[in-house]
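Table S2 (text version). Query chain:
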Amino acid sequence: MQPRQAPHSDQEDDRPGAARSAPREDSSADNGVDPELLGYLFDDSPPAPPAPEPARRRVGTALIESRRAGMGDAGVRAHLARKLCRLLPDLPPDRQDKATATALRTLERLARDHAAHVRTALAGALKDVACAPPAVARTLARDVERSVAEPILHCCATLTDDDLLEIIASHPAGWALSAIARRPAVSAPLSCAIVDTGDAEATGVLLDNDGAVIPEDRLEDLVERSGGHPDWQAKLASRPALSQRLALRLAEFVDDSVADLLRRRTDLDAVTAAEVAAVTRRRVAWIEGRDPAESPGRRAVRLHRQGALDETALGDALSWEETDFVRAALALRAAVHPGIVDDILRSGDARAVTALVWRAGYSMRCAMRVQVRAAGIPPRAVLNARQGTDYPLPAADMTRHLALYGVRS
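Corresponding structure-token output:
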């Protein structure tokens, strides 16, 4: 009887009913790493000279150990991912080298592994590797799982601006935008792309990042929009590149704590510092000038008769959260019954609130502040200005929104 020849470990009989190899050999059953990628380790070709390529030998050892342990096991694949990432810095730069090419193909397969925790292990190990394979980094950066994509988007230096701009253009989740905004260095094109998405949280993260380059025109836009996003204001007041002009503009509508941040800046010239201080003194005078015997409504009537119920007065009242005064001012300026003003401000309807401020003759900048401070509309739901200062709705639309509340033109 002829001795039975052991079957090759990488071959299976695909005939119906044919016996299958042991489970440990079927690494592709759960979409793990294909054993065929490791075939070169088991062929009969002469081994490569051992020196000076210790990293290549360690790659081969890692792959063999993982194969023997059973590549169908996700835990083994996760361990292999971490091990290969540690060896990457020592691999030869020539990607045509057989061991290197096999290691890279294995990493590419692991980046598409069906088990999320395998991809997460790979991302965690690869995020700080300076020589991370670009194809692997791009695959992980586009992963739908936050635990996979976030560390790569935040830390991986292999990703280029073009890669990141392409990801931003694909309308990713907010956490992905925030991860990019937290990168140690964010270029001007990336900053503009993040701001232009309109994602308030990612924009706030960007403003907190001193390593982000934000062009002057985008900073100006953010200063104007910050009336509807109070959480941006302190971040803007602390930005190293904030110009004198924008610092003064910001001082006009922020509360006292943010104005204090502006006053403490050492890069403001004497004129700008004096103007910021003057705004602060005006705010203090507003609150100290109240007559306890005069109700907010009567004070609004008095200022209206004096022609002083202007945007400055309304802005000072908003800064001190004097909502009753703001309601009275809007009713007087818009010639709308106070009860209707209350209905609009309580509605949570950003368009109706904006239309009311428009009818009162105030600016869209003021309308954004009224939405947040007086109407309690969440920043994410605020109707923002068009081109930084203009009303975003045509007059006919605003008239129609007011008519829904009984306001006739």
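Notes on Table S2: The two ends are 106 Å apart (CA to CA). Residues 270-288 form the longest helix (19 residues).
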